[in-house]
Automatic annotation (TrEMBL):
Origin species: Butyrivibrio proteoclasticus (strain ATCC 51982 / DSM 14932 / B316) (Clostridium proteoclasticum)
A Pfam family it matches: RUBY_RBDX
Cofactor: Fe(3+)
Entry keyword annotation includes Transmembrane helix: no
InterPro entries in UniProt: Flavin_Rdtase-like_dom, NADH-dep_flavin_reductase, Rubredoxin-like_dom, RUBY_RBDX, Split_barrel_FMN-bd
Protein name: Flavin reductase domain-containing protein
Biological classification of the source: Bacteria, Bacillati, Bacillota, Clostridia, Lachnospirales
């Protein structure tokens, strides 16, 4: 199969946030979609490796903030390139004016977003690497009229461009994700490596020597 066909699928980008006890957390996802209109239902698929996944399973609640074309790479890096198991993503050094608390007590992101949804889980489907949560929207708010950020827009306009071939020091080895274009630098990639953006594993990376 040609895995590059995955590039042809259209995705949005979202910050999925959850709260469990005193812990606030969030991760990047590309799988929030409306799956029914009467009654209105939204599905999200969250990788089981994400700390946010466990929080949603335990509480049955989350928020989805829709990233816009004004989103910065820093927001995607903050919520997508590190785990809530290791860091507090809502620590005091995360600007307080970049998020607010919705009526369900869960943060939503105000910076670089155009809407948010508060969701209540109705059903779960085990998909192997991911859990599919079928959710009832309990709150829906438009934050701006700026266009939503798609994967294509992220690749072309937000993601930092890789260095041209030949300029990477010492001929470093790059492993490039065929799904989203994320690049891992290192001679060997761990077998259990998960892409921080699209959550695909090592099998979906190709090795590039620069």
């Amino acid at each position: 199969m040609d895995t590059k066909a995955m590039y042809k699928l259209s995705y949005g980008l979202f910050v999925c946030t959850a709260v469990r006890g005193d812990k606030k957390n969030g991760c990047i996802t590309n799988t929030a979609i409306q799956v029914a209109s009467d009654p209105n239902r939204i599905s999200i698929a969250i990788n089981k490796a994400n700390y946010t996944h466990d929080m949603i399973k335990d509480t049955g609640l989350c928020n989805i903030s829709v990233l816009s074309t004004e989103a910065s790479f820093d927001i995607l890096k903050h919520f997508g390139f590190q785990s809530g198991r290791d860091v507090d993503k809502f620590a005091p050094d995360f600007p307080a004016d970049s998020y607010a608390i919705a009526e369900n007590g869960i943060p939503y992101i105000k910076l670089g977003t155009n809407a948010y949804f508060s969701l209540k889980v109705e059903k779960e489907v085990d998909l192997g690497s991911h859990t599919l949560f079928i959710c009832e929207p309990t709150e829906m708010v438009v934050l701006s009229d700026v266009s939503s950020c798609t994967y294509e827009y992220y690749q072309n306009n937000i993601k930092p461009k890789p260095q041209p071939v030949g300029t990477t020091p010492k001929g470093e080895t790059i492993w490039k994700c065929l799904i989203c274009g994320y690049e891992y630098v290192g001679e060997e990639m761990p077998d259990d490596f998960i892409c921080p953006i699209c959550k695909h594993g090592k099998d979906d990376f190709e090795k590039i020597i620069r």
